[in-house]
Amino acid sequence: MHLFLTYTILGLVTGAVYGIAASGLVLTYTTSGIFNFAQGAMAMLAAFTYWQFRYGWNWPAPLALFAVIVVLAPLLGMVLYVGIMRGLRETADVTKIVVTIGIMLGLIALAQWIWSPGVPRTDDLFFGNAAKFKLFGVYVTDHEAIALGCGVLIAIGIRLLFTSTRTGVAMRAVVDNRGLLQLNGGRPERLAAFSWALGGALAALAGILITPISGGTLDVHVLTLLVLDSIAAAMFGRLRSIWLTFAGALVLGLASTYVLGYFPSSWSWASDFRIALPMIALFVVLLVLPQDRLRGATLLRTRERFTIPTMKSALTWGAILVLVVLALEQIMGTSDMSALTIGITYSIIALSLTLLTGYAGEINLAPVSFGAIATIIVFHLGLSGTGLGQRITPWGLLLGIVVTALVGGLIALPALRLRGLYLALATLAFGVFVSDMIIADIAPHVLPIFHVHFSIFPNGALQIPPLKLGPIDLSSSKTFLTTSVCIFVLIGIGLIALRRSSYGRRLAAMKDSPAAAATLGQNLVKLKLSVFMLSAAIAGLGGVLLSAASVSVSDTTYIIFISLALVMLTVVGGIGSVAGALMGGVLAGTAFMALTTTFNNLSTAAGGGGFWNVLANLSLVAPALVGISLGRNPSGAVPQIVASYRPLWRVKGVLALGIAAELVAYLLVLTKVMGNWWLVLATVLIALAVPAIGRVTRPEAFRSLPVTAPIVPAPAAGPVAIDRLGVVDARS
């Protein structure tokens, strides 16, 4: 009984902290319509800031708490809304999700910049470990009592705010009918900013309370994921009910502590299961939620616009990409080719997002996790040979792709009824489950009946040899890079052909209006299942190639933050285009990593610290800054680049001059006159100079298509006529 009470009290305390964090999610979503994936990162940053004030600068605890919870955290929440979130109106769900993911990754990078991960930091309980009292024969610390009390008071306070105050009712009305609220004298922007400030304060309180309870060690990723676990509680309340949210949080806290206390110690997977339990609960909660009605065409068209290239254009640009890479191979060293290969393999994984999200409108936040599944299958069943002669067999690669497609189908089957945010959260839960349960399983097991000893991820690392396809052996860096680019081009051209087919038009109809598509006789279940499986297969192929290019992979290779960064950068590039996938993958796997490595080397050569060290840290924050800026151009960078360079076809002399300058720079590098980085710098300067010269020499060519204009102008906002509901605009 004593043990039961101990774990029950600990579970209630943990659940109360989950409830505090989840209430912040409910609050911000209710008033702004944006689900804040950065809630965990905000809590993490607050915990580190409190540590700095309390232990780094020896501030009194009350002053440190006041500075973080009352001043800095609300200020951060308000700045995020005013500066970023309110610019996300009339954008697709994936854009809103990606921007908050960018904020999360940016706060993580910022925390690692300010507080070096190599320095251990711990946070103590309020009033110390000795401050405790007995309750039903069980010792309860003052810190735990404060956490539980805060949870109860906040639940009551937010409930009263929403139901018994004019401000609370107005906050709920912001999302329901913003225009009607304004007609009645309400100020939606002010109310939404207030809710984000309050949500920031709740996140900070949760982060400060949970750190000592979870062990006291400050870790950027662990703290972020700890608070992200509260998403399951928020979804239990359907992002509406505070009482159901706190009830779900308490159930979640109790379940996690009971697993810790009562699962047999002989179950080697019990610890991993406890860590993954909140995400398992999230997936289950999403499945049992009442199904929303099929969505018709939205009354306000979103600002995202994508064009589908012709097959002639796709073949031409695919050939140009292969030729460019072949030319670059002549001036790149082995390490540079390996780095670019990793970027191309990420681009192949990103193509799965182009198909699933860009074409079909379904969101997947864990594409790299599907690559992890394929890698594990290939490692156990798809290798031949020993030592340096070991290779991935074609049949092993095919088996990994097929199994991954089947896993994608199994994940899709229960999630077929989900869309938008709910589907994104379901795939996030799957990704965290793969990281915490499958990849983290390094202990040996015995397969029943067959008595076969095996380990899913032995020793926490897998050595993946190169692939051999008949006479093509990818053990050479140059061959590997060329083959990867050719695979990317073939899949990319195939996706464009698919999008232009009747199947692709059905995907576009489902994305634009599921209700209209179903009314016209489409089987949405089969359509969603097929696109999920095909997308998972592409991600599995890219994952195996990524693992082979990396040679040795560990749990950090497939951590959920890698998937989130890839999704973010692919959306930044342009989720609806193959070129956007190329840009996102190369940025995620090569470009930013190369910048960071270069700046770190320059910093070391200069004696450490200083200007180069600042640039190295800025390069870590840069991907997040790029993602945050997506609200200004939700269609992505590729459509904007295409729009800005299209007028140059009318100024062919300037375009030819730019190509000639690029060829000269390449020849100078090829003849060793200058280094590779000078070619990069020259390419950037030429890319900026050519449009500028074109505007000076032929300004009339640029007047008909402004650089800042979208490829297809968005239709005017307003209600859609009844006879136009569900009809896809031919321009989109």
Average of per-residue pLDDT values: 83
Give the tally of β-strands: 10
Query: Nearest-angstrom radius of gyration?
Result: 27 Å
Could you tell me how far the N terminus lies from the C terminus, measured between alpha carbons in angstroms? 64 Å
Largest sheet descriptor: 2 strands, antiparallel
Strand content: under 5%
Tally of DSSP helical segments: 28
Q: Tell me the strand order in the biggest sheet.
A: 1-2
Poorly predicted regions: 293-300, 705-732
Instruction: Give the class from helix and strand content and strand pairing.
Output: mainly alpha
The coarse silhouette is globular
Helicity level: 55-70%
Features:
4% strand; 10 strands; 732 residues; mainly alpha; two-stranded antiparallel sheet; single chain
